[in-house]
Amino acid sequence: MTVTNSQDNHALTSLASAMANGEVATVDLTHTLDPDFPVIILPPEFGQCARFRMEEISAYDHRGPAWKWHNFSCCEHTGTHFDAPIHWISGRDLPNNSVDEIPVERFIGPACVIDCSEGAARDDDFELTPEVIEAWEADYGRIPPDCWVLMRTDWSKRSGAAYLNMRDDGPHSPGPSPEGIRLLVEQRDIRGFGVETVGTDAGQGQHYTPPFPAHYTLHGNNKYGLQCLNNLDLLPPVGAVVIATPLKIKNGTGSPLRVLALVPRSHTV
Amino acid sequence: MTTPISPPPRKNPQKRTRVPVEPPDTRSRAALGLSVAAARGRFMLQVCTECSAILYPPRDACSSCLSVDLEWQVVSNRGRLVAETVIRTSTHIYFRERTPWRVGTVQLDCGPSMICHVHGDCESQGNVRMINRLDKSGHGVLFALPEKEIPAMEDDPQLRELTCSPKFRRILITDARSESGQALARAFSRADAALVFAGEAERWRHWPERDSLKEIDNVELVPLDVSDTQSVEELCGEIGGKVDILVNNARFVRPGGVMDGGDLVFAQQEMEVNCLGLMRLAQAFGPVMRGRGADGVNSATAWVNILSIYAYCNLPQFGVYSASSAAAHSLSQCLRSEMRTGGVRVMNVYTSPTEDEWHQPLPPPKVTASKLASAVVEGLQDGLEEVYVGDLAKDLIDRWSAEPKLLEQEMTRQGGGRE
After folding, report:
1. pTM of the predicted protein model
2. Over the stretch B139-170, which tens digit does the pLDDT of each residue have?
3. Chain B contact residues (CB < 8 Å to A)
4. Residue B419 has what pLDDT?
5. Which residues of chain B have pLDDT under 50?
6. Which of A36, B23, B203, B304 could crosslink B94 through cysteines, CB 3.0-4.6 Å?
7. First-to-last CA distance in chain A?
8. Structural domains in chain A?
9. Cβ–Cβ of A167/B206 closer than 8 Å?
10. Do B202 and B277 belong to one domain?
């Protein structure tokens, strides 16, 4: 390893000092891994996403006198989590499509935040359409390539049954329309798409063509997903940097993770 | 007439909770036959296969012909109370705490006479019906009832020691979301339970029956998921000292065998809920219930497991579910042993396939949720340890008792012995 001189190190030292003096704030975009946090519900004859569970191994007791620790278990897609391309059938044959193979530099990158909270408050099935995206671009500029696009809906502020919002015909929650996600992937070449809801697709996403267009389109094009994000209302429309590093699970299709955003203080809400 | 019991007053917090003590526990191996019969509420005595003599007390050889070929059979329970007295003091701590205690001698119509416990409403020299029930140490004891039903006779204090009546007791049903949970809540409410705690897993997942359940008198929804240790511990911390009867109806069912249609993720969940769920509940609620086995009118009295009858013999179409039920059945025996010092009965209710989405392709007869709930309540009122619900379960346990290997042959062939 070469020792870099102070000149070369300028960007990192200024970032470190900006973080230390508060010019750059760190925002936690993660929900707590809690046994009672909602997971996606599929028809019962299908396999199901495991809830987060924790068993105590010892707690300073006869099972281990000076230490406390737990075993925990969950699905790769429990809580705030990352979706790798291998998660979906459209992405199953792509190179570097599992969490352990994705190049690490892909885990840190800029984010555009499209505020759909007003629309989602009016309509549980609010769609992120090309019109909504283009209206956002009219205000903040064209979405640059290789960045995260985060759909803010304030859905993370919901709790209990209102989060999945399940009815007899399935869950109702906002998400991108097929045209909306195709615009982001095919014309803007985003790195990935993040949401506050339990899936990157709308609650009723299976009724689109193709079914679950966000999963299908994102992962078929080697893009990533972030779900169950929190605190998107604390991010600026542009200028935040997202750090989303899934666990290095061999052939993992996703992973619970701690998602952080670095935000310039002038933009914090 | 028996004085009906009243709802107990709130406990005096300055008084120590009475520590459970056991009635006499020593039995010969032959006498354990009474306990076996009592577990299922049967009045059985030994009958000599050589000379047909009906024998009591239990013994190893016939008192008439010395044959050792004695068979336990259901016999007539009718008789006459020929002598009776009331014990007002005893050197045995269990009875000492419960005097006055009525005992007597009953001459059975079928032959033997027996010293037994006597219901307060039995008339001296009158006709009686004998029952054989488990006492607080889990042994069969003989009890004389009046010939005819009398109002409030179930409230007789000596009889209430032998039963697990839900009247004025507080019940915890572990899975309110299931149809059986809702039927159980209704059945316990009708049976004068003081309070029914109904465990609700995953409140974040909508279920339409929630509102109607909340309407039922004395039903209180509480958060509980038997697959989540933390949830079980937290609920026990809140209400553990108020649970007099715990009914574990939580179960996870999926079709599938070991190779054919088997799925490890579903299998894990079946073990998590059906087997380890029981253990989580026992670790939290067990000790506090065992400590309250003699806590007055609403003492902790029973632990109920609802198990599949396929705990006894595997049904390949539900092979892993059967295995998880067998594991729970085995754990329940361990639990029964551990609960015994507190006088808390572990009642297992073995059900035939139930009328629900997972057993939908199976042919009838199937057990409805309300039938299952009635069986639970009646089993508690009768003080049973084993209950078999539905014709299929009753038939299966008879076949298992006769020859388990023959039953396996029948069950594991095409059709699982149902056709």
Report:
1. 0.94
2. 999 999 999 999 999 999 999 999 999 999 99
3. 202-206, 223, 225, 227-231, 263, 265-266, 269, 357
4. 40
5. 417-419
6. B23
7. 41
8. 25-267 (3.50.30.50)
9. yes
10. yes
**Whether residue B214 is found in the same domain as residue B140:** no
- Report the CATH number at residue B221: 3.40.50.720
Residue found by looking up tokens 């006498």 in the block: B31
The answer to whether residues B276 and B139 belong to one domain is no
pLDDT score for B275: 98
Kindly determine whether residue B205 and residue A164, on different chains, have CB atoms separated by under 8 Å: yes
Domain identity same for B189 and B121: no
Phi/psi at A13 (5° precision): -65, -35
The verdict on B48 and B131 lying in the same domain is yes
Token pair in block for residue B288? 């506090």
Q: Is residue B6 part of a domain?
A: no
Considering the domain architecture, whether residues B132 and B271 belong to the same structural domain is answered as no
Q: Would you state the structure tokens that stand for residue B38, as one six-digit string?
A: 């009592």
Residue with tokens 């079928």: B110
On whether both B272 and B413 belong to a single domain, the answer is yes
Among the candidates B122, B154, B186, a domain finishes at: B154
Strands (E), B176-297: 195-200, 219-223, 245-248
Mutation target to probe the B interface, by most B beta carbons within 10 A, among A33, A36, A51, A165 is A36
Q: Using one digit for the tens of pLDDT, what is the confidence trace for B290-347?
A: 999 999 999 999 999 999 999 999 999 999 999 999 999 999 999 999 999 999 999 9
Of the candidates B180, B192, B102, B111, the one whose C-alpha atom is nearest the C-alpha of residue B144 is B102
pLDDT band at residue A265 under the 50/70/90 scheme: confident
Half-sphere exposure in the Cβ direction for B292 (13 Å, CA):
23
Per-chain mean pLDDT for chain A: 95
pLDDT of residue A266: 73
- Contact flag A48-B263 (C-beta cutoff 8 Å): no
pLDDT more than 70, % of chain A: 96
Does B17 fall in a domain? no
CA distance B82 to B174: 47
